[in-house]
Amino acid sequence: MVRNPERRTALVDAAIEVLAREGARGLTFRAVDTEAGVPPGTASNYFTSRDDLFTQAGRHIHVRMTPDPAEVSEAMRPAPSRELVASLMHWLLQRMVKERTGYLAMLELRLEATRRPELREALTDAIRADLEANIAFHLEAGLPGDADTVRLLYFAMTGLLIEHLTLPEVLGEDTTERLVEMVVDRVLGS
Fold it and tell me: What is the dihedral of CA 91, 96, 97, 100, to 10 degrees?
């Protein structure tokens, strides 16, 4: 197997773009090669099968969607409060709107994980680790609430993001922004 980490990353990023645009059925080695702008057959030199390609995309997508540590530091400058939690939830919404492709690809990967055990394992491990890291971050930062608060925010925001990124006209921009405030108020208590 070929060992060029930069090329592998470029191919996995191309796979994420294909997933978001074409869905799981459109994720082929040829589509990844075309998206990455590499010669035909390149992706098949890096991934042993479509399952491997899905799994590698599932492992990499979290790296792609993780905010820059400097941005996190900037966002965390205000004192821990309900307002800061709301600000962080709005920031999450903005980040996911900017990374719409990654989020839509994540939805495709989640659906595909119901049929691919190796992908399910990779996504479960990655999402569980992200959630646990978010809980630890929240608690260590002294933000209001406990671990269950973070879990409730996670589930509420996940549903809101799915609706907003797949069918934005259902809620509309103003309603989405208001709902973020309502989620924080209801979870933390106003």
Answer: 170
Listed residue (145, 104, 122, 136) closest to 15, CA to CA = 104
- Name the pLDDT band for 52 (thresholds 50, 70, 90): very high
- Tell me, what amino acid is at 50? R
Per-residue model confidence as pLDDT tens digits over 111-152? 999 999 999 999 999 999 999 999 999 999 999 999 999 999
Per-residue DSSP letter, 77: -
What is the rounded CA–CA span in Å between residue 51 and residue 54? 5
Alpha carbon of 113 to those of 3, 43, 92, 188: distances in Å?
26, 21, 24, 32
**Rounded-to-integer distance, Cα 128 and Cα 66, Å:** 14
Residues 6+ apart with CB under 8 A from 24: 54, 108, 109, 111, 112
Maximum Cα–Cα distance across the chain: 57
Cβ–Cβ contacts within 10 Å for residue 26, how many? 13
Confidence (pLDDT) at 8: 93
